[in-house]
Write a structure and sequence with these properties.
By secondary structure, the chain is of the alpha+beta class. It has 6 helices and 8 strands, in the order H-E-E-E-H-H-E-H-H-E-E-E-E-H.
Length: 198
């Protein structure tokens, strides 16, 4: 018969072994790292600014490296100095709203709340999903978008509204690009959406 003390010790040893096998470690500042990437260093989903760590944190460089992986198109200097800009574009599609919703959801990789909960451990506060089938849909998710040969992962938000037999769509996005290329970036999102809404 195993005593409570031995059972607790066994669980602790098992947990430590699992952490070692998966490459998990806790940094000096209490954050958890997997394969050198901070998984508990959170950034504001819209601005990309640090949420629960600071530049004075001993492990800030590792957290910054994790952000760089998310925004591979930027050099270290650009990542720190380029603000996230908000852009917007809109279009109308000559198809019903439910068909438009299905095509946009699939093309951009938006998830329902239930799909999110089944696939991810936590919500960083940036996702959004509201649905009134056959009337309107509102979604926001951190999704990849390819622009000028470079794939960037950032938040894209879309709203779909029924307009008679048509569907009106609006896209908002937050991305690190120069102000001069923001309209071209918006056009690339519009073009991507229009392609699947034909």
């Amino acid at each position: 018969m195993i005593t409570m003390k031995k059972e607790s010790q066994f669980k602790i040893v098992l947990l430590i072994n699992l952490m070692l096998l998966t490459g998990c470690m806790t940094g000096k500042d209490g954050h958890t790292y997997i394969d050198g990437h901070c998984v508990t260093c959170l950034n504001n989903p819209v601005t990309g600014e640090a949420y629960n760590y600071t530049q004075k944190s001993p492990d800030y460089a590792l957290a910054k490296d994790y952000r760089r992986v998310q925004d591979e198109h930027l050099t270290a200097g650009e990542l720190d100095n380029t603000p996230h800009l908000e852009g917007q574009t809109s279009l109308s599609a000559h198809i019903d709203i439910d068909t438009a919703y299905t095509r946009i959801k699939r093309e951009f990789g938006f998830l329902t709340r239930k799909e999110w909960e089944q696939n991810y451990l936590y919500d960083d506060g940036g996702i959004l999903y509201e649905a009134l089938p056959s009337v309107s849909y509102h979604m926001r998710f951190n999704v990849p978008h390819r622009y000028k040969g470079v794939t960037r992962t950032h938040y894209i938000e879309t709203t779909l509204h029924k307009n008679g037999r048509k569907t009106d769509l609006t896209f908002k996005f937050w991305v690190q690009v120069s102000k001069g290329s923001l309209n071209q970036y918006a056009y690339s999102i519009k073009k991507r959406a229009a392609h699947v809404l034909r």
